[in-house]
């Protein structure tokens, strides 16, 4: 149910076509990612922030999802940190969350972490460059190298994305090339152990939180989505489709995001009631 909801492709960016094929062989992708995360909450690194050209201002899809995951992990008794860009960090700070500046990624001691999560994070293409959905160069440090290194160390990873150019999408590069505009150019080559595809990356993060809620027996989807989007706008994060700060995410009005988050919360409540019964 959750995977169906989050792949409602209102932006018509390709995930609606990819989802049926991906699900054939990965039907429980949200559940499997959540279950492994639930077992390895000791020290989780969440990485987010997608600079959108031409100004390379970070977009508001990703930070809200990272925030939701962070709070869920803390409520479950785990430890979490967020690595991101200063403008995203401004938003996180407004929500009471300290962050690690993105430029310090080379100082991250991976051996200290039990799990890595990428939420809307640029993944390198075949030529080593990073691209936007429009095929424009993205000016970013190779932060995705953390996930390549984690794979070699055997540290479990989750990638959450909605376009094909994010960390994790290397797992389904053939599908990205088949269904996404400019897929041959922008497709990320960076895989993750678990991949959550979603029409909006924030929604994919919320689905992860929703499944954690069901596993834990407590609903963690309790925030006001419209207030979060408003705060991101005030902090200067931009809508990645409209290319300016807006009361929307990926060109979709805040009211729809609020409705989606509310619906997922209701799905969790239904799941918890069934467990009780």
Structural write-up:
The chain is an alpha/beta fold and 277 residues long. The protein has a single domain (2-276), classed as TON_0340 (inorganic pyrophosphatase (n-terminal core), Alpha-Beta Complex). It is 43% helix and 13% strand. The protein contains 11 helices and 10 strands. The strands form 3 sheets. The chain has a 6-stranded parallel β-sheet with strand order 5-4-1-6-7-8, sandwiched between helices. Strands 2-3 form a two-stranded antiparallel ribbon. A two-stranded antiparallel sheet has the order 9-10. Strand 4 (80-84), helix 5 and strand 5 form a beta-alpha-beta unit. The radius of gyration is 17 Å and the shape is globular.
Quick structural overview:
With 277 residues, this protein is α/β, with parallel strands linked by helices.
